[in-house]
UniProtKB/TrEMBL annotation:
The keyword Transmembrane applies. InterPro entries: Cyt_c_oxase-like_su1_dom, Cyt_c_oxase-like_su1_sf, Cyt_C_Oxase_1, NorB_cytochrome_c-like. Residues 461-673 form the Cytochrome oxidase subunit I profile domain. This is Nitric-oxide reductase large subunit.
Amino acid sequence: MRLTRKTIAKVIAVAFVFNLVVMGAGAWFAYHEAPPIPDQVVGPDGETVVTGDGIRDGKEAFQQHGLMNHGSILGNGAYYGEDYTADALELKTTYMRSYYAQERYDTAYDDLPTGERAAVDEVVKEDLDGQYDGGNIEYSAAELYAHQEVREVYVERYHEGSHERGVPEGMIDSEADARQFADFAMWTAWFSHTDRPDGDHSYTNEWPYAPGAGNDATGAAMTWSVIAMVLLVAGAGFGIWLYRSVRLPEPSAEGLSVPEPGDVSVFPSQRSALRFVPVAAGLFLAQVLLGGLLAHFYIERAGFFGIEQLFGVPILQILPFSIAKTWHIDLGILWIAATWLGAGLYLPPLLTGHEPNNQSTYINGLLAAVIVVTVGGLGGIWLGANGYLGDLWWLLGNEGLEYLEVGKVWQFGLLAGFGLWAVLAVRGLKPLLDREPVYGLAHMILYAGGSIALLFTAGFFFTPETNIAVTEFWRWWVVHMWVEGAFEFFIVAIVGLTLVSMNLLRRRSAEKAVMLQALLVMSTGVIGVSHHYWWVGMPDMWVPIGSVFSTLELIPLVFILYEALGQYGAMSESGGFPYKIPFMFIIASGVWNFVGAGVLGFFINLPLINYYEHGTYLTVGHAHAAMFGAFGFLALGMVAYMLQLSIDPKRWDGSWLRASFWCWNVGLTLMVFVSVLPVGFLQLEAVFTGSYAVGRSLAFYNQPIVQTLFWARLPGDTLIILGTAIYAADIVRKRFVLRASEDDPDVDDMAVAEGVLSDD
């Protein structure tokens, strides 16, 4: 079966409209089906416990003080502290039991005999097993008592500080804000155990698992897990059929003239694009150093290898986990994005031999803007979390949502940066854009970059006052659709461009391969975001939709891995192939993408597994393998390619890059498979045999076997840090051996461009 580029383009357009309709309808449902924020929560005598505005103020306190990067809400956030929803529900259940034990038997709950304790447990379950039919939330006397007690626990824990939990003093700067945060957490606990109107399960589909509160997995979670496994087998068969049926040309060095690095001229704009690399390398090094600190915080929650005790330096107060985690995530996004921006502006002259007027100056301006946004955003996070920005905290400081931590102003700056990048890419690719159809390779790059910017706009659809369920709906548009939609699209487009620039594929062939893989990514990854909606207060229609599309996301990942292995085969056939180091990174990216996003992603996205696993260390393994392993290695591969073209072949030395490559791969393997995943499986068992709150408790993390596994991260983390230090040093030394750029570039100076432009 032969598919034309035009046919694939039409199918992509249909898939795009289909995705838009489904997710647009999902947005409408998000607003209409979100858990209600009542005007008031009242006690048994009608007294006001908290108002709706108080709950919203609690959400603002939660975001302003960076609590999502200390613990999590509804399972989303950091895994260092408690999940506030599960913790509030567990505390509520505990205090209600104490209330009824004292009221009915005049003794402490723990001192009751088995029969009376069971009777109290049943009364608590009956109290919590209610249905909301509108109006005020009405508490029983036991619920009122529990709510008041939880407030005081949160004041003691998050305002006064708890070093054993890794909470610095004054994390929430006032008692009033700490009580409002408790009100917000208790509201999320309320809708996690309260059934929807005319429904038989809670707003969160009975998440978190809390047997004492009556929360357990629904039948739909089991049913759709089985269906997902059936779909996986069917999807594997479909993938094999597709490979056998659709004839895509494989990259091959045979009979083609692969340009030697010395034969390719370097233009001024490419030298400017290379300046993104050392900036990104510095951000990368800072990220992995913070990662080492974060990993050790799980062992020594108020210090770092005894520094606090030896020198009196209060590490926790100076750099608490929440801020370190925030910077760690943002730095990871920034260094990868900066590298991709540079690569996207370096590649066009290879394909066109075209140097627009003042392109180099504009690229330097974009780099300066990226640096300003980076410094402003990271600085604003610290200033906002520490209360220095007043009411502007969410605009100039820290918005306080995982992956969207920086303030709205800095987010807008990033969006403007993507827009400027698109303009510069259009200028650089203009000779190709003018000659090719709208589904051509140069257009694909613009669509991929544009989709990243477009999806980022979803982050502007909410404010700190927006319902947390609606906030999570839009936040996952950015996070998931970036990673498993736009970024995957960008990967295949960049790799396609790279193969063409190496003369390993004709442009037409690359276009067809990129479009087919983009179609598979778009057809599964966009709606696949819905697996993040199962437990956050969205309607239960997302359980079947998310199960189906999350499972099918594995198909494009198999394609990408297959392409990477095919590229490796082509490289191996040619003993004199000059770009082996860049290809090492591209192949590693495909492998880790399959392992992290594919294998580990599929496993944790089975609804029944995800119900117990959601927000545990199994997600940490998936995230690190997918984000660094896939997107990071691709970025690093592009750096290796750019550097090899920009350095005199006689002075090219790839030994340091090879050393970094193996440090990263071995380190990531050790970190994920020796430490992170074993902790995750132990955590899964703890949740399944106890409750979700048990699996996220301090007692779980302090178990000797878990602490030993945390120490087992040290070799892997050390190798990753070492590899990054070698890489950063190599970038610095290579800056001194770059070739001079052409003063008056012309298409004839570019070894690849003429063949690309003539490939119509």
